[in-house]
Amino acid sequence: xxxxxxxxxxxxxxIGRLLAMLRQGRAGETERQAKALLESSPDSGTVWKIVGVxxxxxxxxxxxxxxxxxxLLPEDAEAHRNLGAALHARGLTLExxxxxxxxxELEPRDFKVLIVTANxxxxxxxxxxxxxxxxxxxxxxxxxxEAQNNLGNxxxxxxxxxxxxxxxxxxxxxxxxxxxxLCNLSNALRRLGHLGEARECSQRAIALQPRLGPAHTSLGxxxxxxxxxxExxxxxxxxxxxxxxxxxxxNNLGNxxRERGEHREAAALHRTAVALDPQxxxxxxxxxxxxxxxxxxxxxxxxxxxxxELxxxxxxxxxALAAALRAQxxxxxAQAICRGVLAAEPELVAALSLLADLHADCGEFAEAQELxxxxxELxxxxxxxxxxxAAQRRMTREDNEWLRGAAGLLEKPLPLEHEIGLRYALxxxxxxxxxxxxAFGRYREANELCKRHQAPYDRSQLASQVKRxxxxxxxxxxxxxxxxxxxxxxxxxIIGMPRSGTSLAEQILASHPDVSGAGEVNFWxxxxxxxxxxxxxxxxxxxxxxxxxxxxxxxxPDTSAFAELAREYLALLGERADRAARVVDKMPAxxxxxxxxxxxxxxxxxxxxxxxxxxxxxxxYFQNFFHLHPWASDLDDLVHYYRQYLxxxxxxRTVLPSTTLLEIPYEALIADQEHWTRRxxxxxxxxxxxxxxxxxxxxxxxxxxxxxxxxxxxxxxxxGRWRNYERHLGPLRQLLPPAQG
Length: 741
What we know:
It is a single chain. By secondary structure, the chain is mainly α. Helix content is 62%, strand content 3%. Helix 15 (247-259) runs antiparallel to helix 16 (263-276) and helix 19 (315-327) runs antiparallel to helix 20.
C-alpha cells in the first residue's frame, strides 16, 4: 500500500505561525486558522496534526483529526504519539498502545512516548512489559521523577516492593515534596513491614496536600497494620469523604470495617463499589467476605462466583468460596476447591489451614493436624493454624512450642479476629492443663477485646422481643389448628442455650440410619418477623437467613404465610436430608421460636437440651462468639440473656403439648446415655438403633465448635466444670440456686 500523498501549504512560515500560536496557548485561534488552511490544503498531514492538537487542548473531539494526520503521515512519529496520547487519555488503551508502539519504532529515543506507552501497558495490567520502557526512559533522563515514580508503581504491581521503594526514594531525591510519591513510598514500606517509616511518609503527604485522598488511604492502611483500628477507620473515612466515588476508597474502608466485625456497613460500601465498577473481581471478593460475616453464606457464594468469573485464577476468592460452601454443609465441594488451589500453590498456608478445618469437620483430626503442622512450617506467624490446633485436640504440657508461638504472636500487630482467636486458644490451652486461674485470665482478655469491637448487647431489646413472642404465641394460638400448617414429620428441632449439648444430641440422633443432621439452619428468626409483620410470602427467609433482632409489633402472627414458610423450610432441609426420615435442625436460638415452629409444623418434634446453668454460661464465655452473640462476652449480659432464655422456655413448657416438646437434662444423658437415647428415638418416632451409643464413630460433617467433643466417647468431665472457676464467677452467682449461692 502506498503512503497517502499530502498537499502541504506552500509557505512553511504559515505552519511556523500556527505552531507558535499553539505554544502561546491560543488553541481556539489556532483551530480556526488551521481549518481555514485546510480548505486549500485538505490533505496536509501537518495541518491536520495542528488541528488535532488544538482541539485536544480545548477538550474538544480531536480523535478524527488525529487519525487523519496519521493516515496522511504514516512515517511521522509525532503524529502517532499525539494519537496514542489522546487514546490513552480516553481509556482506549489497547488502541493507544498500538499507536505508541508505532511511534517508538519510528523514534526509539522519544522519552515522552516511552513513558506514555509504559503507562498504557500498566493500565492494561501488563506491568512486566512496562518496566523495560520506564528503564529506557530513565537511561535518557535519569533525573525524571515521573519515570522513577511510575517504574516504582509497576514494580509494586509485580510484588517487588523493595525495588519499588528504591525508585520512590530516587524520585523524592529530585522532588522531595511530591505528595503522591510519598503515598506510594508509604505503601511500599507498609508491605515491607517498615510501618513506622510508612506512617511518617503518609503523614508528610497529608501535611503537603491535605485533600489528597490516597494519602489518607495509605495512612489508614498503615494504622490498621499497626493494630490502631479506630484510627485506621477514621483515616479511611476521610479518604472516602474526599473521593466518595473512589472504588479503592470504598473497598479499603469496607475491608477495615469488616476486620472490626462491622460487616453490615462493610457490605453496603462494597455494594456501592460493585455498582460503580462491576468488573473488579476484588470488589466482588470483598462483598462476598462481608456477606459471609453476616451469616449470609448463599449470598456470599454468589458474589464470590462472580469474582471468579472475572478472574478464574484468584486464590483468595477460591478459598473464600470454599469457606462459604463449608458454611452451607457442602464440605466435599469446599475440599475440592482447596485441593485445586494447593495443586497450583502448594505452599499457600491459608489453603492448608482451611483444608485442615474441613478434615476436622469430618472427624479426620490426624490429617488436620498434619496440614496445620505443614502450614506453620511454611509460616510460623500464621495465627489461624495455632487456633485450629488448640480447637481440635486436648493440649498438654508437651505443647510448649505451640505456647511460645501463640504468645509470641500476640506481641505483634495482628488482624483483630486473629488476636481474639489466639486469646481464646490460650484460654483453652491453660484450661486443658488445669491452670484455671491463668485460663480464666486469657478468656477474660479475649472477651474484653470482643466487647470493645462489637455492637453492645441491648438487654431491653431482647426482653421486649421475648415479651412480643409470648404475646403473639398465646395459649390459644399454641393450641389452635392453623390453616396452611404442614403435616410433615421430617423436621426435628434441638433447641437450648449454646453449649448446652445440642451438638451432642444431634450427633447421637444422626448416628441412626434414618436420621440426617442438618446442623444449624438459619431460618426461624426471619420467619417469625414475616409472620409478625403480616408480610405475605417469605422468599427472603431462605435467601437471607434469620437473626435475633427485634420483631415488628402485631396482634397475632399472619397464618396465611404458613404454607409458604413450610414449603421453603422443607426445601432447605431437603438439600441436606439425603433421603432420611428425619432431619435434625440444631439451631440453639430456635428456643425463641418454638411456638411458631409448632404452629407451622404441629407434628414435628422439639428436643430441649438443658444443662447446668453455670456450666452452660461459663462454656459460652469460653467460646469465641465474636459478633455472633454480643451478650456472650460479658458475665452480667450472660446472666440477663440466660434469664430471658428461662423466661421463654418456661413459657413453652406450659403451652406446648408434651407430644411436641421433650426436655433432656444434659447431665442425665451423660449418666445414662442409653435410657435418654431411647427416649429421644421413641419421641421422634424411630426404632432403637445401637449405633447411636457409638455416636463418636459416626462419620459425618460437623462444623460447630463442638466438632471435636462429639467425636469423643461420652464422659462426665464437663459436668460441674464451673467449680474450677468458682472464684471468678462474679455475676454468674446470681444463677445459683439459693442453697448454693
